[in-house]
Specification:
Elements: E1 2-10, E2 16-25, E3 30-34, H1 41-48, E4 56-61, E5 64-65, H2 74-78, E6 81-84, H3 96-105, H4 111-124, H5 140-152, E7 158-162, H6 170-185, E8 189-193, H7 197-203, E9 206-211, E10 214-219
Parallel strand pairs: 3-8, 3-9, 6-7, 7-8
Antiparallel strand pairs: 1-2, 1-4, 4-5, 9-10
C-alpha cells in the first residue's frame, strides 16, 4: 500500500533528513517509528502528506507515485490521510463538534451527513456529551481525542500520529493508544512516531528504528531498544 523506494530528503543547508529509505507498509498495519529527536521520524510523515518532496527516490501509495501529483490535486491525497498532532492544532474559537465537523464541511458534505458522521466519531473516541465544549475547557486527553476524531471523521485510509502521547500522563496516553489500536483493527493503517518506550514494548507491533535519516532496524514484533 505504501512504498518508499530509495528516498532521500536533503535540505538546502545540507541536512539529510532522510537517506536512501526503502520501506513498505501493508494495508491494515500498525507501525511505530522510533529513534532520537531529529532522527527523521517526522520527515517520513511529512513526505507521506507531500508537505515535503524528496530530493531523490519515489513514494507510492496504492500504486500512485505521490511525487508526481500536481499541486492542484494534493488536497485529494490529503483527504485519504488523517493526521494527529502532538500540539493538537485545534481551533480555539470552535467547539469540539465544530472542530471535527470542519473536516467534512470543507469537502462540501451535506449537513445531515455531517451530523451523522460527527456524532458517530465522537462516540468512537468517547467524547459524547462534550460536543459543545471549547478546547480550553478540555483536559489533555480530551484534546487529543478531539484531534483523533477530526483525523478519522473523513474515513481516511491512513492515520499519521506524531508523538500523540508526549504531553499526556500514562493513563491518558494508554487510552489514546488503545483508541488508535481500535481504529487500526477497523482497517486503517496507523503510523505513529513516538518516544514512548513503554507503549512500543508492550504492544509488540512493527517497529522501525530511524537514526540520522536512515532505517537502522525494522522488526515485525519489535521493541524500542538501542543498537
Amino acid at each position: 500500500m505504501i512504498k518508499f523506494d530509495n528516498v532521500t530528503k536533503k535540505f538546502p543547508d545540507g541536512t539529510l533528513a532522510a537517506y536512501k529509505v526503502d520501506l513498505e507498509i501493508d494495508k491494515d498495519e500498525f507501525v511505530f517509528l522510533v529513534g532520537p529527536s531529529g532522527a527523521g521520524k517526522t520527515t517520513i510523515l511529512r513526505l507521506l502528506t507531500r508537505e515535503l518532496v524528496p530530493t531523490e527516490g519515489t513514494i507510492i501509495i496504492d500504486n500512485q507515485n505521490i511525487i508526481k501529483i500536481p499541486e492542484s490535486k494534493i488536497h485529494l491525497l490529503r483527504r485519504r490521510i488523517g493526521t494527529i498532532f502532538q500540539d493538537y492544532k485545534l481551533l480555539t474559537d470552535r467547539t469540539v463538534w465544530e472542530n471535527v465537523a470542519i473536516s467534512l464541511e470543507v469537502l462540501g458534505q451535506a449537513e445531515g451527513q455531517i451530523k451523522h458522521q460527527v456524532k458517530e466519531v465522537l462516540g468512537l473516541v468517547g467524547l459524547t456529551g462534550k460536543e459543545n465544549l471549547f478546547p480550553q475547557q478540555l483536559s489533555g486527553g480530551e484534546l487529543q481525542r478531539t484531534t483523533i476524531a477530526r483525523a478519522v471523521v473523513g474515513d481516511p485510509e491512513i492515520i499519521l500520529a506524531d508523538e500523540p502521547t508526549a504531553d499526556l500522563d500514562p493513563a491518558n496516553a494508554w487510552e489514546i493508544i488503545h483508541l488508535l489500536a481500535k481504529i487500526n483493527k477497523n482497517g486503517t493503517v496507523v503510523i505513529m512516531a513516538t518516544h514512548n518506550m513503554d507503549v512500543v514494548n508492550s504492544l509488540k507491533k512493527r517497529v522501525i528504528h530511524i537514526d540520522d535519516g536512515k532505517i537502522t532496524k525494522d522488526e515485525k514484533k519489535g521493541k524500542y531498544a538501542s543498537g
